[in-house]
Amino acid sequence: MKSKPYFHQWFSGTLLIILIFISSCSRNHDNADAYGNFEADEVIVSAQSQGILLNLDVLEGDTVKKDQVIGKVDTTTPYIRHNQLLAQQTVINARLNNLEAQLNVQEEQRINLVREVNRMEKLLEEKAATPQQYDEISGKLKVLDSQTEAIRSQRNIILGEQAVLNAQLDEARNLLDKCIITSPLTGTILEKYAETGELVTPGKALFKVANISEMELKVFVSGAQLPAIALGDTVIIMIDSRDDTLQTMQGSVSWISSQVEFTPKIIQTREERINMVYAVKLRVKNDGRLKIGMPGEVKFSNR
Fold first, then answer.
1. What DSSP string runs through 218-270?
2. Beta bridge partners of 255
3. 60-95 residue pLDDT tens
């Protein structure tokens, strides 16, 4: 009867060893070739104009589309400037129209004077007119040509003013456009830095957005591993799960660094003696399980 406690201790110890062995096997049958963290291309959108933020209709976690309007900065000042320039444009157009009308009148008068000069030349040849009469009509034509040239000069000056004004109008419209806040890409709002009613200035961060439908696992491999890796290769991505096992996902090699670098201190590999590695990025579709910064492992397919 005294042997029962010893048998119980022996059985418990043996069972614990078996469980540890099974757990170890479940974790090690998929030994990883490299380790890293998941990344996404994050974009911080900043204000491009100064004014009160009238609205910013997004929350962290919201999905937005490329070029979707999600906010607006007060447009009062640039709108007033734009209207002032439009009024100046109306005045300039009226001046140009007036000069064009004067040039048309000048052209008609010149046609008539040229006809008179030609007629006077014939009369002079026939001695039916005096040189004084010819000089008088020729002088009128020269004066008219001088006046026409002066009007053309005025028109050129106004055309120059109009070009400057058009550039100012383009700038004013650009400022109005910059008051409209849009998303530069289709993705998810990661962080929001401003709220309605705040005074924003150019360069102030408003929100951060990233496309997390596809993410990249950046890992580091040794030179010995590199020959077995090629762009487009299918790989097995592994991430942790609640029950201390690994979940697997399929990915592909999207980028391989062409330069060697020192092993980052945050990366722990099986070959800790290696201090020179190559960075590799693996693209994987995100079904919702992946988060930015999450650790991951990869097993490369045998080539």
1. EEEEETTTGGG--TT-EEEEEEE-TTS-EEEEEEEEEEE-SS-EEPPTT---S
2. 281
3. 999 999 999 999 999 999 999 999 999 999 999 999
**Co-location of 53 and 201 in the same domain:** yes
19, part of any domain: no
For residue 19 the two structure tokens come to 């469980």
Cα–Cα distance measured from residue 157 to residue 160, given in angstroms and rounded to the nearest whole number: 5
Tokens (6 digits) for 171? 């700038």
The structural domain count of the chain equals 3
Q: Mean pLDDT across the stretch 43-53? A: 96
Residues listed for the chain: 303
For residues 58 and 81, membership in a common domain is answered with: no
Residue with tokens 């070009």: 163
| Amino acid identity, position 97 | N
Task: Specify whether the CB–CB gap between 95 and 158 falls below 8 A.
Answer: yes
Query: What's the predicted TM-score (pTM) here?
Result: 0.68
- Cα separation, 266 vs 35, whole angstroms: 10
* Residue with token string 């660094």: 257
Range of the domain at 93: 76-176
